[in-house]
Amino acid sequence: MRLSDFWRLMDDEFGERYSRTLARDLVVDQLGDRTASEALSAGLDPKAVWEAVCRAQDVPRDRWLGRDVKPR
């Protein structure tokens, strides 16, 4: 997963403003007690970070792939 995909999924699920706050402030144990932003900066795979955020926020698994987006 690309970093841009991670942010698209975050924005779609949590909203553009809250997704940035969540990534900056939510400490996730599955990320080694780091925030999503810290984990991404440390080089963790964006997909692993996304899935850890989903688990921590109880996002239903059927929404982990994001919404359907029509190709341009």
Automatic annotation (TrEMBL):
<dbReference type="InterPro" id="IPR021408">
    <property type="entry name" value="DUF3046"/>
</dbReference>
<dbReference type="Pfam" id="PF11248">
    <property type="entry name" value="DUF3046"/>
</dbReference>
<protein>
    <submittedName>
        <fullName>DUF3046 domain-containing protein</fullName>
    </submittedName>
</protein>
